[in-house]
Amino acid sequence: MKAMVLHRPAPVESRPLSLQDLPEPVPGPGEVRIKVRFCGVCRTDLHIVEGELPPVRLPLVPGHQVVGVVDAVGDTANGAEPGVSVGDRVGLPWLYSACGRCSFCLKGQENLCEGIRFTGYSYDGGYAQYVIAKNDFVVKLPPTFADLDAAPLLCAGIIGYRSLKVAGVKPGDTVGLFGFGASAHLAIQVARHWGCDVLVFTRSEAHQNLARRLGAVWAGRAEDGPASSCDAAVSFAPAGSVIPAALRALKKGGTLAVNAVHLDGVPAFDYSLLYWEKSVKSVANATRQDAREFMELAAEIPVKVSTQVFSLEEANEALLRLKRGQIQGEAVLDITQVV
After folding, report:
1. What is the pTM of this model?
2. What's the CATH code, domain 2-145+305-334?
C-alpha cells in the first residue's frame, strides 16, 4: 500500500513525510482493517511531524481523521461489536483505544485513561491506503455526510464539541471563540444551533469573513474585542498569548476551555484577569460518547463543512499551508485517487 511516512520529526518546510510502499496491514483479534477514502489534516499532525509532541514510535504514518470502509476483520471483531462488518463505512478518530479498567475509564473519563493510545501517534494512522483500528473504537458515520465532509468531523468536530461542553456553554450564552480554523468553524455551528451569540477573535481577515458567514455576531482581532462580553470561551490557538486576551473577554464566573494538544507556553498575566471566579480548563482528547453525541448533533443541524482537498502525495504541502494559516476550514487528503 502507499503511505506517507515520518522517519524523523523535522520542520514541515523540509518535507519530512515521504511516500512509500508498505505491506498491507492485517487485522488481529478485535480489530478491523479500513480501506481509507479520505483523511483530515489536523494541527495535531503538524505538532507530531515537527516534533513538538515527542515521538512515541518511528517510523510513523500520521493521520487521525479517517473515513473509509471496513474491508477485513480480525477473528473476533464481528462477535465483539455487532454491526461492524465488511462493507461498513466508518470513521477512526484520535482516540485509538483506552484500557477500560483504570479509575478514569470506570468513571466514564476514557479520554484521561492511564493506558490511552492515539491514532496516527501511538499507531499508524490514515495518511495511507489502509489502517488498522480497534473494532469498538471506530465511529459510525451519519449518511448525511459524504466521505469528504465526514473527515473533519472526526477530530475537529468532536473536539470542538467537547470544548464547548468543557467551557460550560449553555443555550443562549454569548460565546467567544479564539482562533478560527478547522475545529472552530464547526463549533460555531453547534453554538449557533444552541441559540448562542458567538464572537470570533482571529487575526485572519479570511477567517473573520468565514466566521461572519457562519453567523458570528462579531469577528475581529483579539485586541479589538469587547471586554467582559462572553459567558464562556474556547481557545483553539496553540499560542498561550491568547489566554490573557480570552480571560479579558470573559464575564465574571466564566470558563475558558483551552483546546490545544500543544501550547507554546502561558505568559504571566495580572491576577485581576482571573479574579471574579473565572476558570481556565484544558481540553484533553475526547470520549466515544462525545463522538456519538456530536455525530448525532452534526446530522441534526446539519453542519456545513469547509474543506480544501489535497492528494496523498501533497500531505507535506497541506501541513505547510496549515502552519501558515492558509487553510479555510480543514485540509483533507483524498486517498481514493492513489494508484
Report:
1. 0.92
2. 3.90.180.10
